[in-house]
Specification:
The structure is a homodimer. Helices cover about 65% and strands about 5% of the residues of chain A. Chain A folds into 2 domains: about 70 residues, Multidrug-efflux Transporter Regulator, Chain: A, Domain 2, CATH 1.10.1660; about 110 residues, no CATH class. The N and C termini of chain A lie far apart (about 45 Å). The interface between A and B is large, with 103 and 103 residues. Chains A, B: This is MerR family transcriptional regulator.
Chain lengths: ~220, ~220
């Protein structure tokens, strides 16, 4: 198909497609004339992935480039390719050296070891969790995360990973992982707050049929 | 205690305390001389709550005011007070009228009814979940959220709500809810991504002992 058809099919503006081509996010089409290139399904699939990373994953273009490089590097296992995308989705954490940090980091490493999880010692997600544990400690909250870890483990093993097509095109696996991580994460977060409201009503017997004062939103 | 002692005890700068007093976020101390007011534990507790809402909840001052009003309004049940804080923590969602929105909203309402949850029909969290369901549908993802809902329900009923001191000072209950919602939410999100990595290693057999290309972070 021509670039105009690719634009219609993908819903991505021609100018944006040309920007992705210049940036190397989208591979060039097959040149069939001096001023005309031919695009195919692989371009459509790639555009879907770029939009997922950009609009749902909210990744900056530099991070998207790294993910695309991992998708294109066929020597990289599917596991490492997915890891590149997964790590890019997390916030960038600067470890804060000191005793407090080291204690929290030790706690995180012990938790992962006790669970028997196969997680890289270099995974930035360990730092991310460490930072949250430090903050919890400072605020006097319990840092025992075993029940959360077991809950996450069950959810991921029994439901989440089944939505990732490990045997399909590499783009499709990354796209499913990114969309699933972000959107099911967002859904779970809202469901958790809905469950809080319901459980609070059950425990303290307040009616959930009234609108709390200060809420001026329409339902 | 004097304002200088309140500052030392709370770790909040005097200028900031005076700002909270002017904004009405912090109640005035007992005036014991023309230029001297006396503060007590209630001020310390309030400052802790303000910091939790500001630094962990990332709420704007206007939203913090609404939460504080709900804490101060003793005629408001603990359930409705917590609801005010909980609703303030969610993003502000503008419903997008149309068939797509109505279908997704119907799905959310049906899910909550099937679960038997006691959630206000006006809860903005319903809109929040609706928006995520709309996005999932547009992206061709499964919008069956029952397994996520059951997981959230179990976590909240068996662990989370136990950390909220319903019988203590009103500030303490709100503080625990806000800190727990945000920080355990953040921890769960990181744990879920760690479980993804581990489950991916198990399913496709990649070694998690290598660092994915594109990661330049130290562990």
């Amino acid at each position: 198909m021509r670039v105009s058809e690719l634009s219609v099919e993908s819903g991505v503006a021609i100018a944006t497609i040309k920007y992705y081509l210049r940036e190397g996010l989208l591979h060039q089409g097959r040149q069939i004339a001096a001023t005309r290139a031919e695009y195919d399904d692989s371009h459509l699939r790639r555009l879907r992935l770029i939009r997922a990373l950009l609009e749902v994953g909210r990744l900056p273009v530099a991070a998207i480039k790294k993910v695309i490089e991992a998708v294109d590097d066929e020597s990289l296992s599917v596991h490492l390719m997915l890891g590149t995308a997964q790590y890019a989705l997390g916030p960038t954490i600067e470890p804060e050296p000191g005793e407090e940090w080291d204690t929290a980091r030790g706690q995180v490493d012990t938790l992962i070891a006790e669970l028997g999880w196969d997680v890289s010692p270099e995974a930035p997600t360990r730092d991310e969790l460490t930072q949250t544990v430090v903050r919890m400690g400072q605020l006097g909250m319990s840092t025992d995360l075993m029940v959360y870890a077991r809950t996450a483990e069950k959810l991921v093993a029994e439901a989440e990973m089944d939505t990732v097509p490990f045997d399909g095109p590499r783009e499709a696996a990354v796209e499913a992982l990114v969309l699933g991580t972000v959107l099911y994460g967002r859904a779970f977060d809202a469901l958790r707050r809905l469950a809080h409201e319901s459980e609070s009503a059950r425990r303290v017997g307040g009616s959930a049929r009234e609108v709390p004062s200060g809420s001026d939103r329409a339902g």
